[in-house]
Amino acid sequence: MSNSDAEVIRFDGVALSFGDLDVLRHLSFRVARGETLVLIGATAGGKTLTLKLALGLLKPTRGRIHVLGHDITDMAEEELFPLREQLGIVFQEMALFDSLTVYENVAYRLIEETVHGDADFADEEIERRVRQVLSFVDLEDAIWKMPAELSGGMKRRVAIARALITEPPVILYDSPTAGLDPVTSQTILTLIARLRDTRQTTSLLVTHRLQDAFILAGNVYDEKTGALRPAGTNGRFAPGQPTRRSPEGEGGPPVPPTRFLLLRDGGVYFDGPPDQLLAAGDAYVQRFLA
User: The domain containing residue 102 runs over which residues?
Assistant: First the structure.
């Protein structure tokens, strides 16, 4: 497998400006297949804008962006549609349709593809897939509820289910635990880890909560208990270790470690695993971690 085959997302010297405001100046990074890359940094530092650039919702002022082997930098909107079918997105605001049931919200993409002739999903197949993804997020019982009947955590899980409906190999998360209580946040983090460890989903995740990032980096999903358990030696990060073993034991598939990307001044200030971030003697990194 070539390096390009292993790369799912690649930013090369990306800049983004709005008038005289330069939000991103020279952003370069890679996301490997099956990897979780966590974007961290100060507020208004361009983290969410990076997700929008990866989706093609924004065009860079300069630089190139590759997603799933395609250079999307100059792609027209209609050319992006089939590519976006391979990308799931979980918005911080959830972006659920208030007038539609949970079923209709989750099935929306499949229904739209059928109506416009891009696919031909039978009603039975759509309901099967909706129930399957709702079961994955433990919300099948809520299939006919309206969004107004759901708690914030349930809405976030519906948003994850909607992102999964097309079985995408890549999921983008925009602050998936923002505004949630600690117990509900743990549920969402467990779902993200479950996707990472059981489906080898590639993830680009924005968060303002460092604790959440370290939970993802330091734990793996245990299918026997349905919960997270510590990864590495005695639950600690294993510096220099390229992979973690899955909960199935030594014979299970390797799980790539979570990587951190710290943005500052429109570019990458730190790129590496959590143990290196914690060990960094850099004054800015230490202030950021404090």
Answer: 94-167
In a domain, 13, yes or no: no
Query: Is 98 within a domain?
Result: yes
Q: pTM for the whole thing?
A: 0.86
pLDDT at 120: 73
Residue 236 DSSP class: S
pLDDT (tens digit per residue) in 197-230 = 988 899 999 999 999 999 999 899 999 999 999 8
Read off φ and ψ for residue 75, nearest 5 degrees. Answer: -65, 140
Task: Say how far apart CA 3 and CA 5 lie, in whole Å.
Answer: 5
The verdict on residue 70 lying in a domain is: no
Q: What is the pLDDT of residues 93-138, one digit of tens each?
A: 768 999 999 999 999 988 887 876 666 788 899 999 999 999 999 9
Cα dist from 256 to 33, 195, 202, 218, whole Å: 9, 13, 10, 11
Quick: pLDDT tens for 158-176: 999 999 998 899 999 999 9
Report d(CA 237, CA 257) in Å as an integer: 9
Residue 29: band (very low, low, confident or very high) from pLDDT cuts 50, 70, 90: very high
Q: 280 and 183 share a domain?
A: yes
Establish if 182 belongs to a structural domain.
yes
Residues in the chain: 290
Pair 129, 184 in one domain: no
DSSP code at position 140? G
- Judgement on whether residues 174 and 52 belong to the same structural domain of the protein: yes
Residues 6+ apart with CB under 8 A from 201: 34, 168, 169, 170, 171, 195
3-state secondary structure of 202: strand
Residues 142 and 279 occupy one common structural domain:
no
| Beta carbons within 10 angstroms of residue 83's beta carbon | 16
